[in-house]
Write a structure and sequence with these properties.
This protein is α/β, with parallel strands linked by helices. It has a single domain, classed as Divalent-metal-dependent TIM barrel enzymes (TIM Barrel, Alpha-Beta Barrel), CATH 3.20.20.150. It contains ten helices and eight strands. An eight-stranded parallel sheet has the order 7-6-5-4-3-2-1-8. The radius of gyration is 18 Å and the shape is globular.
């Protein structure tokens, strides 16, 4: 049976999130995902998942807010950390309430600090316990500092509901091309498949995180397919892409002439192309 194809909403399109669901359905996608608003309520989840159900689209995951993940590890006073923890609990609650299996969480946010703390890991323990009680799996993403992902997956290595969300674009730029699937792939739960042109400067910067459609950057997609297959992954293939570029960057200009519908249709074509490549490695 073919792997389901999922596209994350947003994409910097003109269409509303609900309108994007229709575009996904018309293009041929099986599933969608979305980012929970920071300090948000469950209204967005209720609206989007309800509309997705009406259209026959399942919700693969809800992405937790990520600005503030550094506070969990480095806010010694705790006030800022509590704000971020509240967002994590809210994301888990939405997943539980609306029947979504996965919550995706950035392991960290921030380019400078690469020192995960015991304080942060202790703060995450009740979050993990809560997710287990609610039947929700937490997929931590490779972001700017893989040291945080490593520390989290090591601390919670005996918890089946804690795993890895592989972002192929982050691997190229934030992780300097290091093999994240080789390190963490046995815990792979969710994918964020996207492309970019790698790290273009001497320092880490979000500007390189272009979230191009697959095959529009320098990623070795055949090798990605091989590595994912080697991990034993056979779940949904989820794509997280954007149509417009980062400030003063031009990589995404190749999509400027496309309508929202044309962009989503092209995303589906690329998703199918990768799925065929992935299936060829079986």
């Amino acid at each position: 049976m073919s792997n389901k194809l999922c596209l994350s909403l947003g994409m910097q399109l003109e269409a509303s999130l609900k309108e994007q669901l229709i575009l996904l359905k018309n293009a041929g996608f099986d599933a969608f995902a979305f980012d929970r608003e920071r300090h948000g309520t469950s209204d967005l989840a209720r609206e989007l998942i309800g509309e997705g159900n009406r259209l026959g689209l399942s919700c693969e995951y809800i992405h937790a807010p990520f600005y503030g993940m550094d506070d969990i590890f480095h806010d010694e006073g705790g006030d800022l950390a509590e704000i971020m923890l509240k967002d994590l609990y809210g994301t888990i609650d939405d997943c539980h309430t609306f029947g979504v299996k996965y919550a995706v969480i950035h392991a960290i946010i921030g380019m400078d600090n690469h020192n995960p703390t015991e304080l942060g890991l202790r703060r995450l323990e009740p979050v993990v316990n809560y997710a287990v009680q609610k039947g929700v799996s937490l997929a931590f993403e490779n972001t700017e500092g893989e040291e945080y992902l490593e520390a989290i997956l090591e601390r919670f290595g005996d918890v089946p509901d804690v795993g890895f969300c592989f972002d192929s674009g982050h691997e190229l730029c934030y992780n300097h091309g290091n093999d994240m699937l080789g390190r963490f792939g046995k815990r792979l739960m969710v994918t964020h498949l996207n492309d970019n042109v790698g790290m273009t400067g001497e320092e880490l910067t979000f500007l390189d995180d272009a979230h191009l459609l697959p095959f529009d950057g320098i990623a070795d997609w055949e090798r990605i397919a091989e590595r994912m297959h080697k991990c034993g992954y056979d779940g949904t293939l989820s794509f997280e892409v954007i149509s417009k570029g980062r400030p003063n960057r031009t990589e995404n200009d190749i999509y400027k002439s496309l309508t929202d519908s044309e962009y989503v249709n092209l995303a589906y074509e690329r998703a199918v192309k990768f799925r065929e490549l992935f299936n060829s490695k079986r």
